Fold these 4 entries.
Entry 1:
Amino acid sequence: MARILLGIVLCCLSVGLSADLSTNIASGMDSDSNSDSDTGPQCSRPIWQDEFSGRAVDTRKWQFDLGDGCHRGLCGWGNDEQQWYQPDNARVENGALHITGRRERSNGRWYTSAKLTTKGRFSARYGRFEARMKLPSGRGFWPAFWMMPQGNITWPLAGEIDILEHSGHTPETILGAIHFGREWPDNAHYSESLLAPVPWTEDFHVYAVEWLPEEIRWFVNDKEYGSVTAAEILPYPWVFDERPFYLNLNLALGGTLGGKIRNADLPGELVVDYVRVYRLNCDEDTATATKSHGSHNRNA
Ligand SMILES: [Ca+2]
């Protein structure tokens, strides 16, 4: 989600979240305590999921991030994003979460949208993190499915994992990335992209990462389109083995990746059929387990 120039972006999203760890442990939702050792059939079942089969956003699983970031000293969420986040722009209907980005005056902004996070609700270290989604079509939309580290650590010292990002100006391209390094402006990132002959917005696809010790792999519909290892980002330290990360889902408008907003293209929706998290270490070791992801219960 964070771009280079505005690397301060997400720093403040993690500030003030020191309560997360205790919340997760207390609720039993944090999978990190046993995710390294369990084996067996639970690997074919999600350890956490939301199928969005109810009538509203399940606030036991998600929190809303609100506003435009200015209350955190991070106007436009550090990326010059144009939307005001509010719960009204997220609804659960027909088995899916719908996040709507629209032209609507609110609190001094010209656009509204929504952002959901499992911050304080669920986090995990390692595993397969996937969402089946249909991306909005239209110039200015910037949907993202991404992860941030638990704890109160200045961005990006503890990392950031972007499972999927997309710009409505380049509808045939999807992006995956990690952010790391030192504090802005000495931060760094590694990214992968996949260019398709037709827009990704035309259909549902399953976007995923498989996160292992010293390695992260990006997938779409079970096709691996990129990976990064600790060795590949040297001399930067690999900070992704240290703590659990929580999930974020949002639809930004404009900003450094969303670009110029074309009002005639609005409104638009990010539709999420489900979000599922699996362990990967089903077999003898993590390295072989990741090859067996076909056993997961996915219906992409
Ligand atoms: Ca569903």
Entry 2:
Amino acid sequence: MRTAAQDAGAPDEVRAIVDHDLCAGVTQCLRMAPGAFQLDEDQLSVFAPSGPWTFEQLAAARDNCPMAAIILLAGPGRATLQDPPLRYTE
Ligand code: SF4
């Protein structure tokens, strides 16, 4: 499976973070992006940067998280890939 960096048209250096104040361990992200997320010892989702995953899978996980807990970041400045944008930037 190709990584996000290899996906045609995908932003460079894509990463995901999970806001553990919001995550409820519903595991929708594990179904939408197998290889990108796993549950930690508290049953909260954490991102696995080494994959395998695709940008489309990450975007699907973000868009389908019932708690809106997944934030995608890209590029050297780690700009957020949210729509609507930027809950976590000032
Ligand atoms: S889908 Fe959202 S709430 Fe559910 S485990 Fe993943 S990040 Fe947490």
Entry 3:
Amino acid sequence: MLERKWFNRINATERQSVGRDILRFDTGQRYPYEFEATQHEIPMLGLEKSANGTIVAHLTDFHAGYANIDPVHEEVLRQVEAARPDLILLTGDYIDRRTTDTDSPARIQRILSAMQAPLGKFAVLGNHDHYRGIVTSTRLLEKCDVHPLLNESHQLENGLWLAGIDDYRAGTPHVNQALAALPSDRTSLVMTHNPVLFKHIESRKIVVFSGHTHGAQVAVPFPSPKLVCWVKLGSPYVAGWYQKGESRLYVSRGIGVTRRPYRFNCPAEAAFFKLSAGSQDAEGSL
Ligand SMILES: [Fe+2]
């Protein structure tokens, strides 16, 4: 078990509202879904002593401006403050492309700016960010002291390497360029919005963080989340851990919603990871 307790689920009253909202096809005027902070441990081959125990927060798919998402953003901020991560990774879709709420950039800017991590805040863009414009979206991140990594890599102060690859569908991903500087003898971290890109990355010592799927938002037996993600997104990845050779992938269910203002049996997620020296073959999740 990890030493620090990072999270608590939202209270029962809020969770109970989910069923009522679904039955009434609520349009998001009330609290629309559950939120869950998940904890994981990542064994990393060749991890430097200085990076052992690093706490990473992975946040994705905020979709500001759509549905009643602001209370969830506030909860995510509280969870991040409680976890006191060393590093924050953001993997896209900060503002929903369909929003008509002109205040949403200011509100998400406040949330992202308030998050603090000594090793920094790094990001890639999602498809919604590309639809809004790469310059506009990048500028928003920089105002929040978030460093975009678009097909490039960066060595953190603790020696760990981090890379960001542009979005698979809406962006221009250059995998080789982004990963060129990563060492071959130890594990590095990689961000990309759409997990489908994982299929096209050759096996190497990396842990990839993605979002985009929202875990399908609605988890029912039929159509199953796997079928929904395959048909709608062309993604064999839905949520959680995947492995291909030496490469590992974590797909977060994300924070926000899009297209439909609800989730069912598929809580929103903020994911926290503790990096530890160990075998690459070990399972990534606790
Ligand atoms: Fe998204």
Entry 4:
Amino acid sequence: MSRFANQRKSKIFSASLLYGLALATILATPVFAAAAPSAPSGADTGSDTSAGASTSTNAQDLITKGRYIAAAADCAACHTVPGSASFAGGYAFQLPIGTLYSSNITPDKTNGIGNWTEAQFVRAIREGVRPDGAALYPAMPFPSYARMTDEDLHALYAYFMHGVQPVAQAVRPNGIPWPLSMRFPLTVWRWVFAPSPDAARQSTERSFPTPELARGAYLVEGPGHCGACHTKRGLAMQETALTAQDGPQYLAGGAAVDGWTPPSLRGDPRTGLGAWSVADLTAFLRTGRNMRGSAFGNMDTAVHHGTQYLTDDDLTAMARYLKALPAANGAEQSWQTDPAATRALRTGGKLTKGQRLYLDNCAACHRSTGAGYAPAFPPLAGNPVVMNAAPDSLIHIVLTGATLHGTQAAPSAFTMPDFGKRLSDAQVAAVVTFIRHAWGNDASAVSDVDVAHLRKRLTPSTMQSAPPTPIDPAPAQPGSAPRAPEQDVSQDTSKPATGPVPTGHLPPEDALHSAPQPAMKAN
Ligand code: HEC
Ligand code: HEC
Ligand code: HEC
């Protein structure tokens, strides 16, 4: 009997282990949303009433507003496959347990959400629950969307029902085998980690020094779901903080997603946004580039589908909110330029392997000063992403290259070439180690083992950032051609050692748009 009991126990144990494992692996996934304490639902469906109460907006205005909210919430980043119909889903998420595809969220009645009521829609967005009661994978960032207002969701629903073309394209069945495909562990996860709409609303309505900061907090913590990438996750892959109130880990930098590491958005002077001004931030979110760095990997996607469409007022509110987040690491020293590396590269004496590789492969665009030709070719000197504790993004971009997409306000695209075929693991390690130590940068060295490891993890979907989609406002434009290293050197000598390297003194934002890029005022 005890034997039987033991067997049973061990069966139960292995079953729960399996589901525990399933849960952990399900959640151990890119781009994921996550968490905070939960409570029951139910009070979240008052959107119809708020619609009645809300002003005299006519149907078209409502749709236009919904479209704007869809951009602020970046729905297209996950629900539109580059090059195919908007919101028809099918974007693949590689989970350790199999492949999850995003849903068709067009108003098609068979394949999409055309039959959903507003209450059902709102519940899916805020709570991650489908009309049939099944839980959604937190790849859908509902723990952040829980904060979205009734008014915004009402407009968003109007947009998806009346402003989006229905697409009769079946959702691909998920490639997740049974029993891992069972959704009940997700329900448990949701109970434990996702905020209830009530709790989220209370947090959203907390007091702020100014209405602008309140707006910025709403956009960043809510629809923008910036924390889904930029905040560290706990053991069950829940975000360890969902708002600025939850502590200094909020937006203090997340783990690599698809091999791209989201850096800290807090006030840390070297590895965060401490040195960036509000104008730097708005330029970055509007155009994907500024004098200090450029958006690449999945941040390029976030700008491409999302932030570029936001108004100046909203971008400024987000920037001010981010600038109000104190540094997570109070001890960090601010970045100071150090001309030693530039001097070594220019004199061309006895160069280290990393210096040599940099001169041969990188200096044409990023220059011997590391200042680049910002905002077209980003600086590497003083660039927070280059000093990130985790070097994944840097190894990744050197291996695969990346394209900075054109945006409405800066239509030129610029491409960083891929060096994966040309450089060995040891060479990539040497050049990345060099840029992490040169010009006053200071971050850990990278080994060939790190490079080999990342190289193995690259899949076709992570090989490049999203190619231009139909909503891309302009095709790629030829940028200012990279200059030869010799020219770079002679150019640089005419300038003080610091050159245009980030110094805290920046040209006004307009300078970004009038920078010497041929297509800057196109469109
Ligand atoms: C970070 C990626 C991501 C973002 C951003 C995102 N979604 Fe999703 N969404 C998903 C994934 C993945 C699924 C499928 C989850 C599953 O099958 O459990 C999904 C599922 C859904 C569903 C359920 C559809 C169904 O038939 O079950 C709806 C509705 C939805 N999303 C709407 C939206 C809207 C509206 C937005 C913007 C406000 C949005 N999503 C933003 C990834 C995302
Ligand atoms: C899908 C994941 C993802 C989401 C969502 C996301 N980011 Fe990022 N972000 C990244 C990655 C990866 C980087 C590093 C690459 C780069 O610098 O572009 C980054 C970089 C940045 C940078 C540049 C920081 C630096 O030091 O150079 C800023 C600013 C930024 N993100 C702001 C935001 C804001 C604001 C939001 C929400 C509206 C957001 N991000 C949402 C992944 C993401
Ligand atoms: C032809 C010009 C060109 C060359 C050569 C080049 N890069 Fe780049 N690099 C770029 C462009 C353009 C970007 C911006 C890509 C984006 O934002 O998607 C970039 C981005 C980067 C970034 C990310 C910084 C940021 O803020 O966007 C790093 C790191 C980097 N390059 C390192 C290197 C290294 C190391 C080499 C040599 C092995 C190299 N690059 C060679 C053009 C170049």
